[in-house]
Recover the amino acids of this structure.
């Protein structure tokens, strides 16, 4: 009945008075680079072939992307809307050489150009930096990161290859920037988007977005506000908790931006945003239980509440633009997870046992960046600036049993279900200076050099309090595993301790040469370097409570080192009807930071191993064979594997020589659209897309500490194709679209969790979803 009602609503909306749509004269192409698309508005009626340029800020200064010696893919708001891209997953599928390892909502780890040892990266700094305006929101792999709402953005840019000179140590293999739209000082503006869908037979998707722009003082002061709400019912049944469609998502929030431009030289932009993302359970499945099934004794929760406050001042001198951006972020997250897979049934008498972690984390981050970008037309152009980041992360670790298990085993004496509580915090800082200098020998040839030199540090602290519950000197695991009833009568408190401070100083370099033989073609060669900050393992030196003979957690990992060599070309011909961007790269990655897990208790730790090499090709192309018809494609070939490895490194990490890293060898997508006149003032559009992602390894193949033993959790994802179809119409400012996502209801495995403690470890594609989008002013 629910499906019938939704279908009726979709049909009524498309045949009613609002004749909406997603047709446009300039239909977007998948993964187009920015210079291949015009700035789009609701009234954009310019012919598709007209050669128009777009100015981007990927290099921290305004310039044509056609001239930027980088591989950049960008998406504007209309393309995001028409393709139904609301988060990181859609961005990754449309960007060559990039995959998103997504165990569940709010867990997003990008892999770019093959630089990943697994898809989870526990305890490791992310290899792709993610920015919301000036705020870096990516941190370490096993940390909740809110998948931000992408309504009313100026654009999303994905920069591939190391971006350390301008975006810091977290951009080892790339950077993704989400740029919010500033207020319009002159006109009142309204836009809205409603998306209603049905996944499977009874899972309803609801997405609501609204923007209002109001000038307050003509030409000098304006306010832009955005509000959004998502309620997307899940599609998995948790057989452990008995909840149908357990992985439901509720996400809401908004932002307000005030822009004041008292003079033609000065502007001040104030932003405040809030997002509350609350998945009710994980989206990881257990295929052995049947399709769309998962199991945990309690819901796995990965929630996030993020508040961002930013003030940005810009002043135009005669020779340069000064930008000063100050950002404060408050991020509260839950990381609640069932760890019962650590002790599966049959592994010992009395198994399985209840075992879980409820971790609550609280981040407070301050970021200050000040930079000066030249604006003169002479041969010299420069960007110079400074960056400072201070992050305090408090994490409360609560290790739990369950009330049912404690009662069944007659284990008493605990004040609640937690047998161990520990309160910690970590202070991390980054201070850096950076600059880029370009010298133009002529309009056809120029050189750019960049340098960033900075200091990073991180230090962990255990706070006084908490406890470890024992009875007669033995911990919870002893009695739970042996099935011995007991009353816990000793609660040993944790003393305040100060961890070793990890710090490092290291430069990042970039040098590029750009040759533009004609207005239609730009070629470049770039050398750049990258690294990640050193890591101290949270439980360094601690033996296993389960098996004291297992390996001792090592101190941590020093900075890794990456060198990238890239050549590329960007071309546009026939008034923009044909555009091709291509790049070839070779990356040497040494002293690799890698994740491993102790076998007996699955405790995560970071270590260093030898070296790897990644080499590949990337292609983006768009063709307009006739008015109204667009074909776009992108493709990437990546060959990334271990090249150096000592026996000691193999033993502690589980790696083997010549092992392929965790990235597909081939991926690509193709998009085709045809727009046509329905009436004199109404456009129609048919569109189809096909995305292919090849299979790749989930982790290293052997067991840390036991290098001759294959890792029980090792596997390969499925190679898969995702097909989407849509039909839309547009009349004036109104638009509407009927769509089908995952047309063939593909259930391929897109992610395999590398750690044994999860029983449900597999990420799959969302089942077939049909729906309607209705928009205004987009």
């Amino acid at each position: 009945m629910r499906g019938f009602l939704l279908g009726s609503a979709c049909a009524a909306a498309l045949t009613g008075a609002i004749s909406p749509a997603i047709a446009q004269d300039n239909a977007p192409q998948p993964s187009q680079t920015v210079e291949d698309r015009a700035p789009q508005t609701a009234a954009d009626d310019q012919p598709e072939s007209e050669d128009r340029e777009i100015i981007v800020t990927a290099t921290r200064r305004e310039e044509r992307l056609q001239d930027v010696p980088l591989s950049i893919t960008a998406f504007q708001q209309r393309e995001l809307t028409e393709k139904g891209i609301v988060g990181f997953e859609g961005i990754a599928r449309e960007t060559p050489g990039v995959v998103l390892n997504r165990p569940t909502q709010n867990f997003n780890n990008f892999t770019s150009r093959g630089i990943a040892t697994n898809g989870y990266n526990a305890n490791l700094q992310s290899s792709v930096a993610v920015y919301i305006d000036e705020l870096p929101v990516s941190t370490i792999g096993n940390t909740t990161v809110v998948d931000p709402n992408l309504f009313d953005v100026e654009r999303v840019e994905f920069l591939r290859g190391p971006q350390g000179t301008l975006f810091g140590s977290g951009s080892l293999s790339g950077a993704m920037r989400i740029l919010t739209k500033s207020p319009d000082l002159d006109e009142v503006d309204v836009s809205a988007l409603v998306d209603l869908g049905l996944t499977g037979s009874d899972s309803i998707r609801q997405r609501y977005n609204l923007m209002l722009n109001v000038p307050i003082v003509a030409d000098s002061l304006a306010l832009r506000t955005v509000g959004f709400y998502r309620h997307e019912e899940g599609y998995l049944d948790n057989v452990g908790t008995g909840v149908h469609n357990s992985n439901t998502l509720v996400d809401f929030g908004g932002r307000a931006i005030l822009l004041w431009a008292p003079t033609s030289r000065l502007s001040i932009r104030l932003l405040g945003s809030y997002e509350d993302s609350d998945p009710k359970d994980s989206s990881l499945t257990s295929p052995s239980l049947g399709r769309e099934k998962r199991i945990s004794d309690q819901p796995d929760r990965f929630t996030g509440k993020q508040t961002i406050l930013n003030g940005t001042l810009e002043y135009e001198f005669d020779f340069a633009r000064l930008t000063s951006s100050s950002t404060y972020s408050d991020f509260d997250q839950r990381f609640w997870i069932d760890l019962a897979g650590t002790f599966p049934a049959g592994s010992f008498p009395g198994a399985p046992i209840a075992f879980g972690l409820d971790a609550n984390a609280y981040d407070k981050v301050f970021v200050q960046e000040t930079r000066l970008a030249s604006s003169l037309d002479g041969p010299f152009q420069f960007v110079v600036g400074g960056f400072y980041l201070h992050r305090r992360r408090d994490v409360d670790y609560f290790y739990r049993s369950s009330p049912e298990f404690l009662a069944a085993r007659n284990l008493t004496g605990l004040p609640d279900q937690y047998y161990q509580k520990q309160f910690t915090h970590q202070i991390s800082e980054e201070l850096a200076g950076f600059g880029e200098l370009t010298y133009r020998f002529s309009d056809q040839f120029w050189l750019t050099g960049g340098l960033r030199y900075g200091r990073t540090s991180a230090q962990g602290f255990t706070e006084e309090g908490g406890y470890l519950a024992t009875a007669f000197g033995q911990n919870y695991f002893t009695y739970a595993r042996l099935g011995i009833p007991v009353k816990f009568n000793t609660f040993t408190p944790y003393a305040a301790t100060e961890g070793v401070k990890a710090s490092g100083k290291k430069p990042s370099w970039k040098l590029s040469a750009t040759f533009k033989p004609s207005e239609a073609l730009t070629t470049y060669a770039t050398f750049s370097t990258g690294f990640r900050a050193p890591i101290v393992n949270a439980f360094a030196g601690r033996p296993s409570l389960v098996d004291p003979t297992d390996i001792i957690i090592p101190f941590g990992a020093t900075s890794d080192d990456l060198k990238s060599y890239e050549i590329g070309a960007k071309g546009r011909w026939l008034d923009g009807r044909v555009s091709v961007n291509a790049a070839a790269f070779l990356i040497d990655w040494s002293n690799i930071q890698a994740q491993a897990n102790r076998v007996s208790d699955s405790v995560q730790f970071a270590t260093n191993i030898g070296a790897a090499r990644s080499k590949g090709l990337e292609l983006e192309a768009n063709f307009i064979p006739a008015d109204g018809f667009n074909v776009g494609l992108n493709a990437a070939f990546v060959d990334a594997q271990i090249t150096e490895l000592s026996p000691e490194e193999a033993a502690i990490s589980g790696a083997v020589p010549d092992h392929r890293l965790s990235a597909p060898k081939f991926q690509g997508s193709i998009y085709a659209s045809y727009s046509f006149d329905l009436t004199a003032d109404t456009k129609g559009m048919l569109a189809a897309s096909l995305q292919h992602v090849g299979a790749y390894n989930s982790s290293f193949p052997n067991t840390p500490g036991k290098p001759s033993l294959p890792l029980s959790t090792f596997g390969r994802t499925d190679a898969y194709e995702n097909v989407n179809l849509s039909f839309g119409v547009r009349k004036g400012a109104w638009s509407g679209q009927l769509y089908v996502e995952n047309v063939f209801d593909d259930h391929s495995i897109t992610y395999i969790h590398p750690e044994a403690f999860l029983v449900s470890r597999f990420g799959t594609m969302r089942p077939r979803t049909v729906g309607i989008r209705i928009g205004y002013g987009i």
